[in-house]
């Protein structure tokens, strides 16, 4: 059966029953139908959260289809619950870009899914819509201020860095001109659209600790300069209050359920190749306040989502993960060993072993944070026993614990051995988390630290625009912000064609964007785009609705 067919055959429990498992009463829920609810922020209890065990699920460098971190996270949480550990899985909300694009839905797969699948993958509780509206309200206010004669701040249109957003892949909107059609239609200027998941509003929502912190961060958004070189922020436009009003419900995490009837909190959805790639601080702390174990994931490979989770989110929110599960697949190892995408289902132990250096590098990277990873082999039906044994033997020879997890086919039952390893690791208290770099270090030093130690680059080069951006960051007094590098997810380098474990390469930073509200700096490398495009045959071609409103093709 397809993921959607499996989901549709699952018996959903009323969300009140799921909430009871977390010790919540119906009056604490804001209902969104029978199976979804928002949770109030006062559920967060810092003293309880400190006693909870935070488990990060990451991965090696993925194939274009992804390696199943969400599926692994859900399956692991099911297994921990089966072993008697009160566990909540905390995930990101899917973006419609990938849903209608190449990857499809993002609610797990097989017997390891969060439900209701259709709602979560589509409009859900409206969080993304609220983020779009808040973002585009600021855009409207900016252009209105340019037009105004009585309330003008003297903004120089050429310096405005803020763009509009939309939660769809639409390459035609990357670069546009607004204000055309005469003097009553605004001031003509070049701008563009980013995808909502890559927006600063999304990043801000995911790093805010409460509503007041959210409003402060929104006010700190850098807009541009006046003609006399004065920096202008959203607070100068008096925009943060109205923007916060649009986000007052979106800041509350969403409670849903897994196929096995366990709680799942889903909130926020930043991309990891552009933004920080993890769910909200609020959702994570809420899961930790209500559970003994909290399982969460970070987008793409450990070099992207994992690094940003540990260096940005954990430092910002004072979180300390107790274990890192490194999702590994036979197909990804063969992909990085040189196999063509069309041949990944064919057994090939030689090519598989050629891909081990990619796994080796990710293991090294996790260890740099004082944590020894646990390898989870996400089992596919096409994996041969010989290939699986080769990976297990590689792990044993490197003193790394590894286990096969058949979570797609078997749900929590397929991850019981993996879950026990996680429990034993937590009980042994072997994690000694430490960040990679000091936020107060110079910007170039922080970028070089990530590029050399995590990616494996020889050095970093800055294009002329990036050098000018460095001076701007210094003039704005933002050099102490952490680094959020925008980079391809397909390679450890900034070149998607360099698979495996590339060495001797130069990381080129073409420009640096400022996310002063979110509280980080974004060096942009390679050809990374903040507004993706659709593939030749997008997933949307397979999606349909019958006369009774049943959705098909959503996977």
CATH architecture of the largest domain: 3-Layer(aba) Sandwich
Unreliable spans are none
CATH topology of the largest domain: Rossmann fold
The strand count comes to 23
Question: Terminal Cα separation, in Å?
Answer: 11 Å
Number of helices in the DSSP assignment: 20
* Computed structural class: alpha/beta
Structural commentary:
- Helices cover 35% and strands 17% of the residues.
- By secondary structure, the chain is an alpha/beta fold.
- The chain has three domains: 3-123 and 258-428, Rossmann fold, CATH 3.40.50; 127-246, 2-Layer Sandwich (Domain 2, N(10)-formyltetrahydrofolate synthetase); 443-525, Formyltetrahydrofolate synthetase, domain 3.
- The strands form six sheets. Strands 1, 2, 3, 4, 5, 6, 13, 14, 15, 16, 17 and 18 form a twelve-stranded mixed β-sheet that branches. The protein has a three-stranded mixed β-sheet with strand order 19-20-21. It has a two-stranded parallel ribbon with strand order 7-10.
- A hairpin with a 5-residue loop joins strand 11 and strand 12 (231-233).
- The mean pLDDT is 95.
Compact summary:
35% of the residues lie in helices and 17% in strands. The protein is α/β, with parallel strands linked by helices and 555 residues long.
Highlighted features:
twelve-stranded mixed β-sheet, 3 domains, Domain 2, N(10)-formyltetrahydrofolate synthetase, 555 residues, globular, Rossmann fold, three-stranded mixed β-sheet, alpha/beta, Formyltetrahydrofolate synthetase, domain 3
